[in-house]
Amino acid sequence: MTVQKPNIGVDPAPAKKVVNESGIEIKTLYTREDVIASGGIDESLPGEAPFTRGIHKEMYRKRPWTMRQYTGFSNAADTNERFHYLIANGQTGLNVAFDLVSQCGYDSDSPEAFGEVGRVGMAIDTLKDFEIAFDGIDLDKITVSLTINGSAAIMIAMYLAMAEKRGFDVKNLRGTAQNDILKEFIGRGTWIFPVEASVKLVPTRSNIAPRTRRNIRRSAFAAITSANPAPTRPRRWVSPSPSPRPIPTRRSSAG
Amino acid sequence: MSDRPIRVLVAKPGLDGHDVGAKVVARALVDAGFEVIYSGLHQTPETIANAAQEEDVDVIGLSVLSGSHIPLCTRLRDLLNEKGLDDRLWMIGGNIPESDRAPLMELGYKGVFPTSSSLDDIVEFIRENVA
Predict the structure, then answer these.
(1) Second label for B25, Cα 20 to 30 Å away, from A76, A106, A124, A146?
(2) In chain A, what are the domain boundaries?
(3) Mean pLDDT value of segment A10-33
């Protein structure tokens, strides 16, 4: 009598080769040998490098994660109302959406801004707008994320200036500026300066606020937007066609 | 109509920088044998109307994903009319809510192709409507 062995761990048919986005081949099955080959089980504790068990010692037992829905629309006053509503309903942070005009560094009354003012985020032209948007909000009790890249330098500076003007010690402010300009070239197009100059600005922006110490995170990499926007290589379609010509884009350096 | 290929201006009005859709459509139009001129990002209605006139295109195809299509299309319509380009085929694609289809058609945009439209449908629409 033949006893059929159970099929555990054995593929009936070889699976097709799977390679992840980083180019690493994913095996069908991993065993103890793979764990040993990879350097063994990571025995670090939470809050210790390489942080596989979390970046803080006590993680969410000490403090729940920040809840901050991306928001901002129309003008600073409407956005302020929305901020207060969200905080009243339990949000512990604010994630600020700027309109494309502010993201590109144009003034709301510039010709390029036509039709776009106050859409997809709030319009910010001056420090006064920042003062209105954050009016009545306790800046040392809430963390603020500025989702801004191209015009990040100006927006970070305005946020800090607004906070100082209201008497907050900038050392007590907490938050993040997205400040990820490469994503704009890869995915969203709201860059202002050429690549090299833009990249140079990233650490420069970080140095705008040296007094904030570690409390303001100076950059957040937007991996999703970088990975997903382009199913084709954009340049390839250009060559075989009868020379599509780009219209020169006027970009004002002011504003 | 001469026997020159159909000429299409693919344009990105406004400050929306999402251009993958516009480039995919442009590529499909090239593959269909059309001559395609791509505007690049961040164009104003003025630069688009000027390009349409200078390039003497048969089709003006816009791509907008920021929600600003109604004001941009209204302004562009006025400019295209001023330049006597109202006999060209005006089209638009992008994040266009179904409820905006009728207002856009009323403005003179004969083809409205929101996100997920088929490339074949777009090509076919142009072939049928450029006489």
Answers:
(1) A106
(2) 31-63, 66-226
(3) 83
Q: Please give the domain boundaries of chain B with CATH numbers for all domains.
A: 36-126 (3.40.50.280)
Distance from CA of B104 to the nearest CA of A (A): 15
Identify the CATH number of the domain defined by range A66-226. 3.20.20.240
Distance CA A225, CA A107 (A): 26
Shortest Cα–Cα distance, A233 to chain B (Å):
9
- HSE-CB of B121 using CA atoms within 13 angstroms: 10
Please tell me the distance from the alpha carbon of residue B115 to that of residue B103, in angstroms, as a whole number: 18
Contact A55, A217 (CB under 8 A): no
State ipTM. Answer: 0.89
- Residues A71, A82 contacting (CB under 8 angstroms): yes
pTM assigned to the model: 0.76
Give residue-wise pLDDT tens across range A196-216: 999 888 876 665 554 454 555
Interface test with B, best of A98, A116, A190, A233 (most B CBs within 10 A): A116
Query: Does B33 reach chain A within 8 Å, measured CB to CB?
Result: no
Chain B interface, mutation test: which of A114, A120, A243, most B Cβ atoms within 10 Å? A114
A184 Cα to chain B: minimum distance (Å) = 8
CB contacts, 8 Å: A250 with chain B: 47
> Chain B: residue nearest A246 by CA?
B39
Query: Residue holding tokens 């006597």?
Result: B84
> Strands A18-19 and A25-26: what pairing?
antiparallel
Report H helices in A29-135: 32-37, 59-62, 76-88, 100-104, 127-133
* pLDDT tens profile B79-123: 999 999 999 999 999 999 999 999 999 999 999 999 999 999 999
d(CA B3, CA A101): 42
Phi first, then psi, for residue B13 (nearest 5°) are -80, 155
Cα-based angle A195, A196, A197 (whole degrees, multiple of 5)? 95
